[in-house]
Amino acid sequence: MKSHLLILAILGFGASIASAQRDMPAPGGLPRPPGVRPPLPEFLAKYDTNNDGVLSAAEITAMKAAIKAEMEARRAEFIAKYDTNGDGVLDAAEREAARTSIAAEMEIARIAALTVKFNALDSDSSAGISATEWAAGAPAGAPAARVAAAFAKLDKDKDGTITLAEFTVKPGRPAPGPGRGR
């Protein structure tokens, strides 16, 4: 049932994009000539096997089958990864272990992405972002007061430098500092 709902949601989303694109002007703002369709969105174009820019009934049927097969493969992979007792079903303990593992993977990815951003802002490689570096990395046209306020909010120990630990702390959690494992 869930897979049917997902397929219907995908098809509905694709139809809404196709409908919206039909009324969109051509690149450059010029109107589209009558009968000329915009290209299909990339995620749908791969199912347009005859490259006519339209999904036929047969192509839609094939797309549904491909999506269902991909979902089943992902489900089987997920169960194989977390089914520690090999019974083909995730019990409560295995589901909790899966949640914990996925949360840890997401946290590692979050820290890695923020570390890349931190290193880009730390232009002098001092292991800290100064107010000047922070301002230089701010979006063009950002009000100086907002840039300064954001810097002050991240600089938890108020030493004039944002450390990687301060930069990567999750919102709502205290940043490392004096008396906090620093």
Low-confidence stretches: none
Using the CA coordinates, give the radius of gyration: 25 Å
**Cα-to-Cα separation, first versus last residue:** 50 Å
Q: Note the main sheet.
A: 2 strands, antiparallel
Proportion of residues in β-strands = under 5%
Notable characteristics:
two-stranded antiparallel sheet; 182 residues; 7 helices; mainly alpha; single chain
Write the layout of secondary structure elements.
Layout (H helix, E strand, L loop, with lengths): L1 H21 L19 H4 L11 H26 L9 H30 L7 E2 H6 L7 H11 L6 E2 L1 H5 L14
Antiparallel strand pairs: 1-2
Characterise this structure.
The structure is a single chain. The protein has about 180 residues and is mainly α. Helices cover about 55% and strands about 0% of the residues. It contains seven helices and two strands; from the N terminus they run ααααβααβα. It has helices at about 1-20, 40-45, 55-80, 90-120, 130-135, 145-155, 165-170; strands spanning about 130, 160. The protein has a two-stranded antiparallel sheet. The chain is flat and about 65 Å long.
